[in-house]
Design brief:
This protein is an all-alpha fold. It is built from ten helices and no strands. Helix 1 packs parallel to helix 5 and helix 5 runs antiparallel to helix 6.
């Protein structure tokens, strides 16, 4: 169990997105631009779509890799949860990471594909209709554990999905406040449209 936690955290904490943005975004430090978040939405706002896609894929790959390397059974679930924690609180960036959505997607795509597809489709629909990445992330985060609990499968995955959802929702508490006060920024239509926003 402890090795799985260490493996998961080590993989999840790798600041791949931060490094990709540095290299492909002309030396951009994600912690100092836009929302200060190292996730793909902030990359899109500050460095453009192609760099944001690279960051998102890297973060998804981290989650998937943690599960695969840890092996099967409960160890895979524990490693997946630890990977999300590592992404959110990476030691390399002084525990200031992303919000965990993409990494969680990679984790649960390996552990429970059908609920993950449902959550991903929900995310895409919400963002397409509202242009709020944060709202799409929040709704999808709620949908995943609900569908997982309703789907026959392992209890460990049910619990893991719930724990990760709670962490991601906690990380989005500022977004929730801005959505309720109607001050949340919508996803801009072009590169670098918002460099100093308080959004996702």
């Amino acid at each position: 169990m402890i090795p799985a936690i260490l493996i998961g955290y080590a993989i999840g904490s790798l600041p791949i997105g931060y490094l990709v943005a540095q290299k492909r975004g002309g030396g951009i430090d994600l912690r100092r631009v836009g929302s200060g978040n190292v996730g793909a939405a902030n990359v899109y706002r500050t460095a453009g779509l192609s760099t944001a896609m690279a960051v998102m894929l890297a973060d998804i790959a981290k989650g998937a890799a943690a599960v695969l390397i840890a092996g099967g059974g409960s160890n895979a679930v524990v490693a997946g949860v630890a990977a999300v924690i590592g992404h959110v609180y990476p030691v390399w960036l002084r525990f200031k990471g992303g919000k965990g959505v993409a990494t969680a997607s990679g984790v649960f795509a390996m552990l429970t594909p059908i609920p993950t597809l449902v959550a991903a489709a929900t995310f895409a629909i919400v963002v397409a209709r509202t242009r709020f990445v944060s709202l799409g992330s929040i709704v999808a985060t709620i949908v995943l554990p609900v569908v997982e609990w309703l789907t026959p499968g392992r209890l460990a995955v049910d619990i893991g999905a719930t724990l990760v959802a709670l962490l991601i929702l906690f990380r989005h508490r500022g977004n929730v406040a801005r959505l309720l006060s109607r001050t949340e920024r919508a996803l801009p239509p072009s590169r670098g449209a918002l460099r100093r926003t308080g959004g996702q």
